[in-house]
Amino acid sequence: MEPIRWGVLSTAGIGIKAMIPALNAASNCELRAIASRQRDRVGIVAREFGIESAYGSYDELLADPEIDAVYNPLPNHLHVPVTIQALKAGKHVLCEKPLAMTEAEARHVAEAASTAGRQVAEAFMTCHHPQWVRARDLLREGRIGRPSAIQVLFSYSNTDPENVRNKPDIGGGGLYDIGCYAVRAGRWLFGSEPEAVCAVMDRDPAFGTDRLTSGVIRFPDGAHLNFTVATQSALAQQMTVLGAEGYMLFDAPFNCPPDHAARLVIDDGSDLLGKGRQVEILPPANQYQLQAEEFSRAIRSGETALNGPVDAICNAATTEALTRAAESGGWEPVTT
């Protein structure tokens, strides 16, 4: 199978820290090009990572006939327009989350992908991690009985006024940056779609972005997920899945280091001190590399990539409903 030839749009931190090394390590990928409006910067990054072509504009990269797929890690407000531009240029697109901030925007991307006959996926790398895959398998096997609740805590501290995550007019804020992970976790682990949501937000008085958001997402058959995400609090990541016959605890659920053997805890709930607890050790894995390889395989096989357009529409509809709920103070339906 011929490798997919990749280009990266921008020199964003997530690309340099995670996706560019992942693409270079992936067995079925060739990173051929990178583009940035900062011409000096893009040349430095290209040399650092051994990237053949460095372009001073996104248009130049998208016009390169040697590129099959692009990774879009631009600020949130550019995800939809640049992804659609790339699809029209005949490129497959792996776009950073959130792919879209509204259901309507996600549908526009899905329609563009269908028209172009190209793949598009939202970059939820967590779904590729062995810990997440194993947990979903265990749930399907009934290991902890019928799952009824998921609790998620995800926080970090960022008070830089120049950081894109702190600018509301370009899609900043905790819900869009990390709350979308909680939404995807519920949909992934429950294997169903949300029905309704409620939420509360605390907004930074200077930035205007939500710095603390908590929500409840109701799924079919009475199951629900509750989450808290924060952008000005201590670094923390926790996820618990509660079932009728036990519960599971995840190890660094969202940013598990690639050299860390994740420990998935399965407790039968027979003792508060954990006497009925078992720990499964999962092999170290680079979830970004696994994501790149899966997307490249989907391109070659023609199968729909994981976290494809339908998933993106459902995730966007849920985050949009959470925003409405925070404004209304009540429950809001999730409709797709």
Automatic annotation (TrEMBL):
Ranges where the Gfo/Idh/MocA-like oxidoreductase N-terminal domain occurs: 5-122
GO MF annotations, alphabetized: nucleotide binding; oxidoreductase activity
InterPro entries: Gfo/Idh/MocA-like_OxRdtase_N, Gfo/Idh/MocA_domain, GFO_IDH_MocA-like_dom, NAD(P)-bd_dom_sf
Domain spans labelled GFO/IDH/MocA-like oxidoreductase: 133-247
Segments crossing the lipid bilayer: none
Database matches in Pfam families: GFO_IDH_MocA (PF01408), GFO_IDH_MocA_C3 (PF22725)
Top-level taxon of the source organism: Bacteria
Keywords attached to this entry: Oxidoreductase
Leader peptide range in chain numbering: none
UniProt cross-references to PANTHER family, sorted A to Z: OXIDOREDUCTASES (PTHR22604), TRANS-1,2-DIHYDROBENZENE-1,2-DIOL DEHYDROGENASE (PTHR22604:SF105)
Family: Belongs to the Gfo/Idh/MocA family.
Protein name: Gfo/Idh/MocA family oxidoreductase
Annotated organism of origin: Paracoccus saliphilus
Lineage, broadest ranks: Bacteria, Pseudomonadati, Pseudomonadota, Alphaproteobacteria, Rhodobacterales
